[in-house]
Specification:
Number of domains: 1
Shape: globular
Order of helices and strands: EEEEEEEEHHEHEEEEEEEE
Strand content: 35-45%
CATH superfamily: Immunoglobulins
Structural class: mainly beta
Number of helices: 3
Number of strands: 17
Largest sheet: 9 strands, mixed
């Protein structure tokens, strides 16, 4: 829990699980960067181009704050086999089946964007539970970190998204209770994964203390122009990556394996620059 009037610095990283590269602030990539505390804070207005610290603020009470960042689209192209492997690993069944039906080994040209949220623990549940209206959003139904099971709803354009593959990672807290810098961390395996139900809900076991990262990806066919020099081709696919990070400070009993859960390597799940 962040104490009132304690300075907080907010940074961002892109990578795999909890291992990643810190990203400098770029207004060209930002659609919105806000925080919900005693009032809504527009961090984008105060951010400095190229700064590795995206925001600096001091909460005025102990109610906590939910931060949300939405990017615009960037593009990436992967060789056919690598793209298909990525679709399979992320559980993107419909795009993978569409490529298999087409029976062509074409590279995967993809536009992608991010919808990231972070909960700074506090006593005001409303700040944690209210959606921001992000294109793809992981909305907690209980305050993250308070209970040994986190129930969330995955929303796509404000509506429940059924069948979304939701993954969770956990990294231990520093013995002192402080968080470790991103560049000092190791990649960790997925701690749990499961799919959302017809109402977009999924329950994630988070019994162990640590930092937690929950993510989901949604992909659809795209008809946007592929913006490369001298090309008027179309992007094949358009993906949106959502995440929710929080800390669970109270150590509990060891986590039990959930039915149907698995722990594959975390390669690729946050591997977008």
């Amino acid at each position: 829990m962040v104490a009132p009037h304690t300075a907080v610095e907010v940074s961002a990283a892109a990578g795999t699980g909890f291992h990643g590269e810190r990203k400098p602030w770029s207004p060209a990539r930002c659609v919105r960067f806000v925080g919900r505390a005693t009032r809504t804070l527009d961090f984008a207005r105060a951010a400095t181009v190229g700064d590795l610290v995206w925001a600096r603020f001091a909460p005025s009470d102990d109610g906590g704050a939910m931060l949300a960042y939405e990017s615009n689209f960037a593009q990436i192209e992967l060789p056919a086999a690598e793209f298909d492997a990525y679709l399979e690993e992320e559980g993107l069944r419909e795009p993978l089946e569409a490529r298999r039906r087409a029976a062509t080994a074409t590279p995967g040209r993809e536009r992608y964007r991010r919808c990231a949220k972070t909960w700074l623990a506090g006593r005001d549940a409303k700040r944690a539970l209210q959606p921001f209206g992000l294109p793809l959003e992981i909305v907690p139904l209980r305050v993250p970190g308070d209970d040994p099971a986190l129930r969330v709803r995955v929303l796509w354009n404000g509506r429940p998204l059924a069948g979304a593959l939701v993954k969770a990672w956990r990294t231990p807290l520093d013995p002192s209770g402080a968080t470790r810098p991103v560049f000092a961390r190791d990649s960790v395996a997925v701690a749990w994964q499961g799919r959302s139900d017809a109402a977009g809900r999924v329950t994630i076991p988070v019994l162990e203390a640590g930092e937690w990262l929950v993510s989901a990806v949604h992909m659809e066919a795209s008809h946007a122009t592929w913006a490369s020099p001298g090309s008027s081709a179309q992007a094949d696919w358009e993906s949106t990556w959502a995440s929710l990070t929080f800390a669970r400070p109270v150590r509990s009993t060891p986590a039990l394996s959930a039915p149907g859960a698995s722990s594959p390597a975390a390669r690729g799940t946050a591997a977008r620059p």
